[in-house]
Amino acid sequence: MRAMALMRPRSGRVEMIQKESAALSPGQIAVTVLACGVCRTDLHVVDGDLPHPAIPIVPGHEIVGRVTRLGAGVTGFTVGDRVGIPWLGYTCGICEFCRSGRENLCPAARFTGYQIDGGYAEEAVADARFCFRLPASYDDLHIAPLLCAGLIGYRAYRMARLSAGNGDEARPWRLGLYGFGAAAHIIAQVARFQGCEVHAFVTPGDERALEFAREVRVTSAGWSNEAPPAALDAALIFAPVGALVPEALSRTRPGGIVVCAGIHMTDIPSFEYRLLWEERIVRSVANLTRADARDFLELAEHVPIRTQVQAYPLDDANDALNDLRAGRLSGAAVLRPGDTAAHPS
User: Is residue 179 one of the residues assigned to a domain?
Assistant: First the structure.
């Protein structure tokens, strides 16, 4: 089978290789890859921002696949089922984090497209325990971004709601989104569906991102160095820019929260304590749990999420990575191994 793999650490690109179909260990499934989203985390893997990837490694952890083979002992799936394979690919199940509902922090965790070959390929193999059935109402192309951009956005959003509370019942809850790409455009739709005000902030001068936010019908859209119409209850930072942390803190109300939702971020500059005072919170989100995936995919059956995607054939994976790196995408890039020509949707 064909696959695009990172062959040298920090090379910034993937290369076409031929791989034998893997023999299945007990508990594993094999899928034909129907679509695989291209995530910013993939960039961090190929560019070397994340240390010690397996080499060679096939990136990709927003995998939509059709089950073709079952390993011994697999239950819950049959050949022909459509499944999603996300970032979290294995946990030990016995450490204190796994036993307390925080398997995303398991020190033995392994991740798809980083330590386990992912979906930049015609076939993928995964531990069936970490795969999920997908809502039938979404096609392959448009559901792929939900498997990381959607999941991590949802975990960040849910953490913000739990930490900052629901605010004043006399007004909508105010959410700020810093960086408006794949994750933000998904969670903006969820938050709006749930009655929140959503205020989008993009890099000053990035008219493409500003227009994209407006197309998603956020409450307001502006530059990331500008104030929102009113103080925010919470801010989610999706852009990997540390300077946005004090900026977002300065825009939150007392008791508000800033959630850093990326796996990598540039250094956070020092800032005055007054920005943190009045019980404001800064926290990160790490990975996801299987419970996050189940809850979000169930929610997605009821929320009319419309993902904006740009499709690329497998051979053009480097073009997709370059477009993401350069900020030329509105929404998400998705690889389709069966395609021969790229097309927007």
Answer: yes
229: its two tokens: 């119409």
Residue span of the structural domain in which 101 resides: 2-147+308-344
Residues 6+ apart with CB under 8 A from 33: 63, 64, 65, 119, 121, 122, 123, 124, 337
The total number of structural domains that make up the chain: 2
Tokens of 44: 């961090």
**Contact present, 69 and 79 (Cβ < 8 Å):** yes
Q: Which two tokens stand for residue 126?
A: 């995964």
Kindly state whether residue 291 falls inside one of the protein's structural domains. no
DSSP 112: B
Domain membership of residue 298 (yes or no) is: no
Q: What is the pTM of this model?
A: 0.93
**DSSP type of residue 116:** B
Are the C-beta atoms of residues 48 and 8 closer than 8 Å to each other?
no
Pairing of strands 232-237, 252-260: parallel
CA-CA distances (angstroms) from residue 58 to 17, 19, 76? Answer: 10, 10, 26
**What does the pLDDT read at residue 51?**
93
Q: Tell whether 172 and 203 lie within a shared domain.
A: yes
Structure tokens, 150: 């959607």
Report the SS3 class of residue 105.
helix
pLDDT tens profile 223-269: 999 999 999 999 999 999 999 999 999 999 999 999 999 999 999 99
Is 204 within a domain? yes
* Degrees to nearest 5, angle at CA 150 with 172 and 41: 125
Distance (Å, whole) CA 225 – CA 217 = 21
Per-residue pLDDT band at 322 (split at 50, 70, 90) = very high
